[in-house]
Amino acid sequence: MSRVADIAAALAGYDPKALSVDGVQAFLASLVEPTVLREREYVPLFEALGRVLAEDVVSPFSVPPHDNSAMDGFAFDGAVLDSPASEIISLRVAGTALAGAAWRGALSQGDALKIMTGAVMPAGFDTVVPQEFCTVEGDTVRFPANALRRGDNRRFAGEDLMQGRPALLQGERLTPAGLGLLASLGQAEVSVFRRLRVAYFSTGDEILSLGEPPREGAVYDSNRYTVFGLLTRLGCEVVDLGMVRDDPAALAAALSEAARQADAIITSGGVSVGEADHTRAVMRQLGDMAFWRVAMRPGRPMAVGLVPKAPGNANAGAAVLFGLPGNPVAVMVTFLAFVRPALLRLMGCNASSAAPPPLLRARSAVSIRKKPGRTEYQRGRVTCTPGALPEVRIAGNQGSGVLSSMVEGNGLVVLHHAQGSVAPGDEVDVMMFDGVV
Ligand SMILES: Nc1nc2c(c(=O)[nH]1)N[C@H]1C(S)=C(S)[C@@H](COP(=O)(O)OP(=O)(O)OC[C@H]3O[C@@H](n4cnc5c(N)ncnc54)[C@H](O)[C@@H]3O)O[C@H]1N2
Ligand code: MOO
């Protein structure tokens, strides 16, 4: 009764020793259905950025509520433009309409009304001439007939949001624009799914925690901070379980605690075949796991599975475990390619909000060696020149432990599974990560 084995059995061509990137994505799409987060809460708009909408938001009224002017100028009945008597239109100015209050005075055809941007269009008037085109003498305004067409500079009621129609959909992640949209509906609070809780820890005896003195053969734990940043950017609630030494009891305790507290778990290190690694054994003992060698670079060894929240109680559910390779760039690449879309689904995002960042088409400035049969992600720096396709250069040393080139780059050149080497000038796909991770 292994869910992981069932999913694997249903995947055509599943080979844990040479799984393609597409194969991993298909596996995760089955393992992580967007069903985990059912709990919802109301939060004020100022706390809602990045949160996922738990229900559709239907406009209680239209925005803007009235036809209004898009310019400071003079509103008039645009019929006079249909067959103007002379090159200069001359109208009597009946008064001024300010934004925020409707004009209540009488108007007749042949009148104009001085109007401010956002002010309600008076009934029967459908056109606004910007004041830059006008000369005013006493109560007469004049402007060239060819300066505009009937209907210009009028904004329609409901052109932004129509009363009774959905303004935002369940499963959308709230962006700054989304917050503004909700505010324009007068809504001070919004119903969102509770935040996804993700626990993480680093493993390995050669890894030092910050504050520890340097030691020969040891390196500081960078993954803990990178993973913290990746999860925080995503809007997750993080459960930091620190560094866990390569000891079965310590690893089992950390993994159980992570599963108890969180919806998902990210570990780094210990998923390859090293002799001293107990991580795989402990994962296998506590969870329903798959261990893969993925046909990609970086990010070859990887573990994925489910760890029960309360062993022996199936109703308590399970946390999804992502056992990422230890190399710092492999952590980031596997996070972007696999973990991030899966976490977005767990957060309750709909298909479009959970989609990976769109790929940018760029011209490679350099040659890139690549073997068909695996997907490679190379750190690159994309630059744009007006009128030309964006250009990408490979950023620094591409070793999977080299974080400095990840800092230097702004995107990952994605060299697809079947693709071969790239010559200078060839077009390539780039997954931009600036602002995403
Ligand atoms: N015989 C084989 N050896 C290796 C294989 C393989 O298939 N066969 N795969 C290589 C690849 S690719 C990777 S990636 C690594 C992954 O190994 P692990 O996931 O078991 O990770 P570790 O061995 O624990 O660490 C790898 C590397 O990353 C550094 N590291 C680990 N944790 C951190 C951290 N928190 N902060 C900074 N750096 C970290 C660690 O020092 C190692 O240098 O295996 C290859 N070997
Ligand atoms: O592919 Mo490993 O995952 O970093 O070198």
Automatic annotation (TrEMBL):
Query: Which keywords does this Swiss-Prot/TrEMBL entry list?
Result: Magnesium, Metal-binding, Molybdenum, Molybdenum cofactor biosynthesis, Transferase
Read off the Gene3D superfamilies from this record.
MoaB/Mog-like domain, MoeA, C-terminal, domain IV, Molybdopterin biosynthesis moea protein, domain 2, Molybdopterin biosynthesis moea protein, domain 3
Family matches, as InterPro entries: MoaB/Mog-like_dom_sf, MoaB/Mog_dom, MoeA-like, MoeA_C_domain_IV, MoeA_C_domain_IV_sf, MoeA_linker/N, MoeA_linker/N_sf
Would I find Zinc among this entry's keywords? no
Give the domain of life.
Bacteria
Q: What class of enzyme is it?
A: transferase
Enumerate the spans annotated as MoaB/Mog domain.
Answer: 199-345
Its annotated pathway reads:
Cofactor biosynthesis; molybdopterin biosynthesis
As cofactor, the record names:
Mg(2+)
Is Repeat a UniProt keyword of this protein?
no
**Coiled coil, from the record:** none
Catalytic activity, reaction form: adenylyl-molybdopterin + molybdate = Mo-molybdopterin + AMP + H(+)
Give the EC number(s) under which this enzyme is classified. Answer: 2.10.1.1
Give the UniProt family note. Answer: Belongs to the MoeA family.
Q: What does this protein do?
A: Catalyzes the insertion of molybdate into adenylated molybdopterin with the concomitant release of AMP.
Protein name per the record: Molybdopterin molybdenumtransferase
Q: Which organism is it from?
A: Variovorax robiniae
